[in-house]
Amino acid sequence: MQIDVTDELIEKIRSLPIRRRSEVVDFVDFLSRRDDEMLVDAATKLSEPAFESVWNNDEDAAYDAL
């Protein structure tokens, strides 16, 4: 019988000392934030062409220097 990777991970975490478990929580939080940031970056890149005409125009050129 094959153990689900989630069950294996839970068992490994349970075997850690308490102080190490908090490091695991911090690492999982880091991974979640990194994934969220990657999603936001991807969405930003995809939206750039739609906003190009709004951002790049002669009327607003003075703001480019700010």
Q: Explain this structure to me?
A:
The protein has 66 residues and is an all-alpha fold. The chain has helices at 5-15, 18-55, 61-64. The relative contact order is 0.06. The model has no long low-confidence stretch (mean pLDDT 85).
> Taking all residues together, what is the mean pLDDT?
85
Number of domains: 1
How many beta-strand elements? 0
Shape call:
elongated
Instruction: Please outline the major beta sheet.
Output: none
Radius of gyration: 22 Å
Which percent band covers the strand fraction? Answer: under 5%
Distance between termini? 63 Å
Individual helix count: 3
- Class by SSE composition: mainly alpha
Order of helices and strands: HHH
State the helicity in percent bands: over 70%
Low-confidence stretches: none
What is the fold's blueprint, element by element?
Layout: H1 5-15, H2 18-55, H3 61-64
Summarize the structure.
This protein has 66 residues and is mainly α. The chain has one domain (5-64).
List keywords for this structure.
0% strand; 66 residues
